[in-house]
């Protein structure tokens, strides 16, 4: 027969509130007991506070298990019925006296007394000969306002027709415009027509120099232009006339060349024929110059020329050269197992790494005092000689309990379910 060991133990069953059990709703093992604290009435549990139990069957969740119950030998079956029993009036002791004491008023009389056209008062008395006593005054309120419909008034919010009021209705003089003389009306009409003609003239020819007072005359004036106006219109449009040498440009720009654009084939320095801001400046071959007007005079105006970009690098060529330079510097490197970096060097921008395997001689000796906290940690370690036998063997038979020592088996609560 195997050896036995007697231990002093206490078993702490799963204990939690009804709210936690219902919320977590675990599935209890078969025979596992849930101890439930019910502080307030919950469904069929009305005798609170109470501590009840449910026993698991291994399949049902807590909310689906029945409460643990037992028959009370000293309680009559009718007292545990779901509905209250029925009694005869004669079976209830003192019922007749109680009812007689509650019903006392058997001869009170009431009457309403008028207090004029708008109020009454309620009076009461005991019996038929006693004095009348005022109980409450009741006031009646009337409102009379103007009705929304012509010929009516509003009495307590109700539209009421007033006899003869509709036939007496009239229209106020302010509802009509005052009469005016025929001459005033004619003058106003003429002024309005002149204003409209002026607006139509402006819409047709703008706000130019036409002086005619009729639309037809103003249009005819607008169709007549002076030479200066025509030159101004033409000067607003550039006209390419080809390529020329600088010396072949017109010696004196005039209205005849206004708007002409010349492409100068050789480099030049702007002279007095050019606008004031350009005189004395140098321009490359291929510069475009146009004839413009400044006041009453005509000048050359240097525009954009042709720029030779053949010696400039393109985006593609720059990207290619940069990419080539980066690739020349790109040297792959990766860690090597059980090796560490011993040196780093650089040649022509290329970085190289030298590695070597770790040797025992590479590891320096570290004193115990140089490791932060090590001495304190070692001092807190238990000495083998001070350990109990069970700490070394792990055999429960080596456990020794002193007087008052207990092992508590805590089964947890509603949230600690296996």
Structural features:
single chain; 418 residues; alpha+beta; four-stranded mixed β-sheet; 20% helix
Walk me through what this model shows:
The structure is a single chain. With 418 residues, this protein is an alpha+beta fold. Among the domains are: 9-80, no CATH class; 105-160, no CATH class; 191-222, no CATH class; 227-302, no CATH class. It has eight helices and 19 strands. It has helices at residues 18-24, 95-102, 182-205, 215-222, 227-235, 315-329, 374-379, 389-393; strands at 9-12, 14-17, 33-38, 50-55, 108-114, 119-126, 133-139, 144-146, 152-155, 158-161, 239-244, 260-264, 268-269, 282-283, 288-294, 297-302, 339-347, 350-357, 407-410. The strands form seven sheets. It has a four-stranded mixed β-sheet, with no helix packed on it. Strands 2-3-4 form a three-stranded mixed β-sheet. A three-stranded antiparallel β-sheet has the order 5-6-7, with no helix packed on it. Strand 15 (288-294) and strand 16 form a beta hairpin. Helix 3 (182-205) runs parallel beside helix 4. It is flat, with a radius of gyration of 59 Å. The chain starts with 8 loop residues before the first strand and ends in an 8-residue tail after the last strand.
